[in-house]
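Support reply, case 0932

Customer input (verbatim):
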Amino acid sequence: MKNQANILKPRKIRGEVFRKILEDYSLLKKIADETGNRESTVTNWAYRESDKVSNYFSVNAIKKHTGWKDKQIFQS
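Our regenerated output:
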């Protein structure tokens, strides 16, 4: 029997999260370190409100830094 993959609906990041990334340099730095990208790249993601911020590693860095839960990070 094959294993079935759980397919989730894509979730959109709230605007407050993008603003927090742009305003808080230490959060931006943590996301850059976790994803292996440059700080300028993460700044561009936040500025453009890119879906790349919903990356697993980015979301974990946001949760650890801010203490926010999924409901505070994602739109419903």
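We compared this against your earlier run and they match. Two observations from our side: The helical segments are 15-23, 25-35, 39-48, 56-66, 70-73. The two ends are 34 Å apart (CA to CA). Please reopen the case if you see a mismatch on your end.
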